[in-house]
Structures are given as structure tokens and as C-alpha cells.
Amino acid sequence: MDRQTGRSSLTAKQAGLTLAIALLLSILAGAVELALDARAMRHEIVSDTRYRLDLVHGTAAEAAFQLNPDLATQVVEGLFNGGRVARVAITDDFGRTMATSQRENEPVSGWLAHTLFDDILHYQQTLNYQAGSDNPAQPVGKLELTLALDRLARDFTDRSLLIFSLGVAKSLAIAALLALVFHGFVTRPLLRVHAAIADTDPRQPGHWPKPAMGRHGNDELGHLVESVDQLLLAFQQGLDQRDQLHQISTMDGLTGIANRRHFDTFIAREWQRARRNGHALSVIFIDIDHFKEFNDHYGHVAGDDTLRAIAEALTRVVHRASDLVARYGGEEFVCVLPDTDLEGALRVAERIHREIRALDIPHAYATHTGRVTASLGVASCAPALDDIGHEELMAQADSQLYRAKRQGRDRVAAQI
Known about the structure:
Layout: H1 3-8, H2 10-66, H3 69-80, E1 85-92, E2 97-102, H4 111-117, E3 122-129, E4 138-147, H5 149-198, H6 220-250, H7 260-277, E5 281-288, H8 291-298, H9 300-317, E6 324-329, E7 332-338, H10 342-358, E8 374-381, H11 390-406, E9 412-414
Parallel strand pairs: 8-9
Antiparallel strand pairs: 1-2, 1-4, 3-4, 5-7, 5-8, 6-7
């Protein structure tokens, strides 16, 4: 199978279509999954950040109450080392910064990152400290935290690529599985039907190797095979009818041998073949002597029987597959002998003459014998050497036939 055929095969088209659908569905499903994951990621970020702030709230409040910058620095550094933090600061209740830590510069992020995370970047928590169990908690400062937008964007991108890759991989696996299942369940049976049709002999379409469809016997594939079977049977019937009509159109209805139409086609074809191959071609004309008088005296039924008997006698003598015996018209018959010279044709004509006499059919108006006889004219030529056509060859044979009649009938005449 060449490359073009491979691309245009049903299996390739089915696999390509399945893959395209799977990819499209994976993209749509991936988009939905990414949207859900972005929502989940936002919730995780907010929850994690607030949990961490709540975790250090007590220590940060104590540092602000004691105005202890070292403790405040430890809290800030602990929060800043979280990876996603861009700035952390602790201020006392007078607004003075006790400790702060921030990135020197933050890379510029795209519009998607701003859209997704801008509203969850900044956090501020009031630090409340209770000096004693009897005293209420008092605000002693503030804890501020800003998340790094580029880090959040990078984390989202990494998660998105992982989710999308897994989605595509799952879709491709599903597509491959569907392609295999579809190929085994649908494409292979279709290919079997195609192979059976391709192996069908166009001369005998009704005898095509109809495939057994098994589990597809009652579904659309089974119905397709039955429809193809009915169609090919209809073609076979049409061919049979055509052959019957052709046989009827080329066969003499009374004698069962070739008719004049078949003879005309046959001699023209054999003339051309003899000219190409340089072989001889011979023609024998046969005419039943005094046949009109025979019909008038014995009746048409006896005349028809006689014509059939003579036709059978001719086919007994002229029996090569390459030869032709035809009814030329009325009581006239003709034999065409390809690859036969004049000497061979004369031998055939003499045997025909004897075979007709051996039928021993009574004829009250026969010239000499009192039995049905025939006159024969023989002509032969080599088309490659003689500058004549098959019409002239037939005319020569016909001329020899009339010479036999003039010489007294019941004889064979041939060109000298």
C-alpha cells in the first residue's frame, strides 16, 4: 500500500477522525478542568495564607507588645521563606515598622495572572495582645503580607501543563482504544466486504464470495452485505438475460446453429486475423438441391426436419472450435474454415457431401438418386497475399456453388 492509499484508507480516516474528536474534547474538557483548578487553587492560596498568618499571630503580637524587633524579624523571615511571599511587614501600634522583608523587584506578569490572583495578593491582620487574664485583648500592631504574583502564575502554569498533559494523554489513550475497537468491530468487517467485492469475477457477479458476517448478521453491516448480494444477483440475472438475448440474436431458431448475423461478424473478424497472421481462410457454400419441390411435395414440417438433419450433419463434419457452421438463409448453409487452404477445404466439402447423402432422406424430385442431395462451392485465399476482401471470397464460393448446380447438382465445385 503506497502512502497516498494509506492516507485515504477507511482505517486511517477513522483513526484521524477519532483522534481529532478526542483532541477537541480534551481541549474543551481541559479548559473546564483548568477553570475549576484555578478556582480550587485560589481557595488553597487564601486558606493556606490565612492559616500561616493565624499560626504566627500570637508570636507577632507578643513581639509588637514587647517592641521586640528581633522576635518580629524571626516572624517576618519565617513567613517570607514560604516561597510565594513578596513582602512581609510588622508594625507597632504607632505605625512604626518593626521588621520587614521583601523582594527587591517583582517580574512583570501577564494579564491572566492579574485576572486570576490580583484580588487575593494582599493580607492585613491586626495584632491583638492580652496582657493578663483579667485584661481584654488590645491591638498592639499590624501584620501585613503580600504574595508574589509571578510565583503564583508560575505555580498555576505548572499545574495547568500537568493537568492538560494528563488530559491529552487520557484522550489519546481513549482515542486509540476507540480506534482499535471501531477497527475490530466495524472497519475489519467492511474491509472483508470490500475484499469480497474486489475478488468478484465481473463475468459471474452472482457467484461472489459472500462473506459471513457473524454477529453483524442482523445489523446495518449485515443488511449491507445482503443488499450487495441482491444487487450482484440482479447483475447476474441481467448478464444471463444479455447472454440469452445475444445467443438468440446469433442463433438460427430452426436448426440451432449460427445465423446469418453471426456469420457476417465471424467472417469479418477471421478475415482480419488471417491477414495479420498470414494464414489461409476458406469458405464452403452448401445449397440443398430442389428444396422448393421437396417442401411442396412433402410439406414444410418435413422440410424443417430435413434442414435440422443437414445442420447436424454439417456440425458432425465441421467440429473444430475455430470453425463456423451457419445457416445462410432458406436452404443455404455456409462453413468458414480459418487456417485452412483450398486442399483442406475440398476434403471437408467432400465429407459434407457424403454425410448429406448418407442421411438417405427420400426426395421424389431429386435429379438422379431419389434422395436429398446438396451442391457445394468452395473458395480459399490468403488475405495477407491476395488483394481482395472477404466479400470477394464469398462471391467466389457462391460462384463455385452455381457452377456445381450448372454441372448437374449433387457435387462439389472449387476454384482452380
